[in-house]
Specification:
The structure is a single chain. Helix content is about 25%, strand content about 20%. Helix 3 packs across helix 4. About 35% of the residues are buried. It is globular. It has one domain: Peptide methionine sulphoxide reductase MsrA (Peptide Methionine Sulfoxide Reductase, Chain A, 2-Layer Sandwich). It contains 5 helices and 8 strands, in the order βαβαβαβββαββα. The longest helix has 17 residues. It has a 6-stranded mixed β-sheet, covered by helices on one side. The protein has a two-stranded antiparallel ribbon with strand order 4-5. By secondary structure, it is an alpha+beta fold.
């Protein structure tokens, strides 16, 4: 019998869409508490979409990121408030920088009722703070089926350091 305490490590998953998934992944992957990232598609009606399928609103899917994180290090609320709502402009409907279309919408896909409640509270707090000069347009959408993007999209900006991104941290 071991004297070691039983492991209490736990992970949680967040699914967020904040424009092109390359830039969101590049910023979020290095946040303390983030264990894994996966870029992909969710929120649409087409099964097994490809990158091509997501454009021009052909599938209804958003480019999104699935983040596995340690809630003992990074809370869902902190992930939203200190990272998600600062790495993209949540006031531009279906747009981030030069990227335009529903696939680039700002959306949160809560994985539990508690995440939904937290997302609603964070959006209300940020909107009321007037940190952004226009109203928040981030939608809260049902957690749907997750489809991982093609391999060449995973870690894209690490593989292509001069690749395009419109994401940066705002104060």
């Amino acid at each position: 019998m071991s004297d070691q305490p039983a492991s209490t490590s736990r992970t949680d998953v967040a699914v967020l869409a904040g424009g092109c998934f390359w830039g969101v992944e590049e910023i979020v992957r290095d946040v303390a508490g983030v264990l894994e990232t996966d870029v992909g598609y969710t929120g649409g009606w087409l099964e097994n979409p490809t990158y091509h399928d997501t454009h021009d609103s052909k599938s209804g899917h958003a480019e999104a990121i699935r983040i596995t994180f340690d809630p003992a290090v990074l809370s869902y609320e902190e992930l939203l408030e200190k990272w998600f709502f600062k790495l993209h402009d949540p006031t531009t409907l279906n747009r981030q920088g030069n990227d335009v279309g529903t696939q680039y919408r700002s959306a949160i896909f809560p994985q539990s009722p508690a995440q939904r409640e937290t997302a609603e509270q964070v959006i209300a707090r940020i909107d009321a703070s007037r940190v952004w000069p226009r109203p928040i347009t981030t939608s809260i959408e049902p957690a749907g089926t997750w489809y991982s993007a093609e391999t060449y999209h995973q870690d894209y900006l690490r593989k292509n350091p001069n690749g395009y991104t419109c994401h940066f941290m705002r104060e």
